[in-house]
Amino acid sequence: MRALPFALLLLLPSVVYWQTVFHDYGFRDDYAHLREVRDEPGKLFRLTASNGRPVYGAVLEASLRVGAGIVPELPRLRSASLLLLTAVGLVLWLHLRRSGWSDAEAMAIGAGVVLLPGAQVVVGWAIAWPIALGLLLAVLGFWVVDAHLGRRGARRTVGLVGGALLYFVAGLTYQTSALFVVAPIAALLLVRDERSAPSDSRWVAAHLCILFASLVGGFLLMNVVFTEGVVPEAARMNLEPHPFVKLLWFLRQPLPNSLALFELRDRFNTHAPFWMALAAFSAIAVLGYVCGATSKQQRRRWLFCALLLPFVAHSVSLAASSQAIGYRTLLPLSGLFLVLVVYGLRSLGRTSVGFVVTRVALGVLVALAAGLANRNAFNLIAVPQNREWQFVHFAASSLELGSPPRVFIVRPMIDDRSTERVYADEFGSLSADADWVAKEMFKTAMRERFPDALPDKAYFVETGFVPPELPHDYALVIDMRALRKEGDRPLAVTTPLAATSRR
After folding, report:
1. Which of 168-172, 225-229, 302-306, 373-377 is least confident?
2. Is the model more confident about 495 or about 147?
3. Are residues 371 and 386 in the same domain?
4. Count: domains in the chain
5. Res 324: pLDDT
6. Are residues 235 and 322 in the same domain?
């Protein structure tokens, strides 16, 4: 029977995300980073290091440097995300089933993590692949630490230091990725043997102390880097000056967004399915306390996981002086609630009938998550971003070079998007609404057209939210506001009196 969950975890992510991975598109920073690694070596590393993520910048720059810096190469990076997330699901399944969870329950948690909205963004956004690397380092670090906590002597010390180093590198890759270990901590705590009850606090404290010692170590290292002036410190590295305002934000945004698990929130109109998912998953999680926690100690464990660990899971974002609402920062918190939901379903399996109900419910949960993940990643990331890219790519192919032509891009506003739903800078969002992204998109398209590189000032690009007052001064005007219109061809490309201008 164990071959079935293994095969499912191995194949499901590829089936769900295949369309998204190999679609032809870039996403916001993708375009700029494709150029920067060649024209401005080291800039990407300095940028990410200023946000406390030097490993992120190093591995991302190395991965982008391999190739010609064009959009058709981005599926290679999205494939890396897919493979790393698949490994995360497999590692979680292997460790959880050895720690008291059944194969089906461990599989549901492993698969669910790979299908969360945050994972959908990591797969759909090519330059986000190091986030998946950080997740894998974190779960491997947890496995190593947990395996050596019960040992003695030099092997224990070496194991704990090794696990801490994995946390350390995960934190310097993407801080919230390191915090993902909160999910397996909760999973193992909820099913610990009753005879281990007196040592629960020591076990949890040991795990959290090693985790935060590693994160604080990374923070202190980066402070030295900032102090020495190696790279400038980004504003988000400062501590939050208004903790109560931040707490209110946490209760209104990250908490409900994570607890709804696989259902997305809308930026402008939070639809009924979101609130229904929030209510349903909350009720299922509470089943774990009502039906699954049969002793005083088990109830304490559940309350600790449900009431205190959410703050730990989101502690980096709570401490930082920014209010990042993207789903890519919610993976630790969503993973924790996923564990509580599966534990709630597990509590139904105390009878033979309950056993069947639990297995069916777990199957429905994974199937529902897979369907939503496929739809969201493809329809809200890949398709709209492809549409933007095709507008610019088609326009670049028609530009005639001679005396340096001027190009004007009419940038779209949020109401010009081609999707009905939108959230943050991820699902259903625009790329070309930013001046620098629109210009980088056009540069990338021209680089694909002329792979041997164009001379400096071969063309000039300007952007704005309204058409130019003197359109005849431009060889090419690309009106991206037409994104909201139907049609496969980007008809919003005009060349007003271009021939006359060139004469």
Report:
1. 225-229
2. 147
3. no
4. 2
5. 78
6. yes
SS (H, E, C) 139-173: HHHHHHHHHHHCCCHHHHHHHHHHHHHHHHHHHHH
Residue 482 and residue 365 share a domain: no
* Alpha carbons 225 and 395: distance in angstroms, whole number: 44
Helices (H), 22-152: 29-39, 43-49, 54-65, 74-97, 103-115, 117-124, 129-149
Q: 364 and 106 in contact (C-beta within 8 Å)?
A: no
**In the prediction, which pLDDT does 488 show?**
47
Would you state the structure tokens that stand for residue 438, as one six-digit string?
Answer: 């629109």
Radius of gyration for the chain, computed over Cα atoms and rounded to the nearest angstrom: 25
Asked whether residue 96 carries a pLDDT value surpassing 90, the answer given is yes
* Whether 225 and 334 share a structural domain: yes
Six-digit token string for 107: 């599989």
Whether the pLDDT of residue 105 is over 70: the answer is yes
Residues 406 and 447 in one domain: yes
Is residue 476 over pLDDT 80? yes
**Residue 156 sits in the same domain as residue 268:** yes
Q: What percent of the chain has pLDDT over 70?
A: 94
In terms of DSSP bridges, do strands 476-479 and 493-494 run parallel, antiparallel, or are they unpaired? antiparallel
Classified as helix, coil or strand, 460 is strand
Q: Is the pTM of this model over 0.90?
A: yes
436 and 308 in a single domain? The answer is no
- Contact status, residue 190 vs residue 339, Cβ threshold 8 Å: yes
**Residue 102 region by backbone torsions, left for phi larger than 0, else alpha for psi between -120 and 50, else beta:** beta
Q: Read off the pLDDT of residues 147-162 as tens digits, 9 standing for 90 and up.
A: 998 888 888 999 999 9
State what percent of residues in the chain have pLDDT above 90.
Answer: 65
Contact 188, 309 (CB under 8 A): no
Kindly give the interhelix angle for 74-97 and 129-149, rounded to the nearest 10 degrees. 20
Domain ends where: 341, 362, 379? 379
Residue whose pair of structure tokens reads 């894998």 in the numeric block: 136
Q: Average pLDDT of the chain?
A: 89
End of a domain among 358, 379, 400? 379
Of 353-367, 426-440, 462-476, where does the model show the most confidence?
426-440
232: helix, coil or strand? Answer: coil
Asked whether residue 489 carries a pLDDT value surpassing 70, the answer given is no
Type of residue numbered 295: S
Q: Which range of residues forms the domain containing residue 425?
A: 382-502
Please indicate, yes or no, whether residues 372 and 389 belong to a single structural domain of this protein.
Answer: no
Report the C-alpha gap between 461 and 438 in whole angstroms: 9
Q: 197 versus 163: which is more confidently predicted?
A: 163
Instruction: Tell me the backbone φ, ψ of residue 104, rounded to 5 degrees.
Output: -65, -40
d(CA 43, CA 33): 9
Residue with the two structure tokens 């607890």? 259
State both tokens at 341.
């939901």
Query: Would you say the C-alpha torsion 148, 151, 153, 155 has a positive or negative sign?
Result: negative
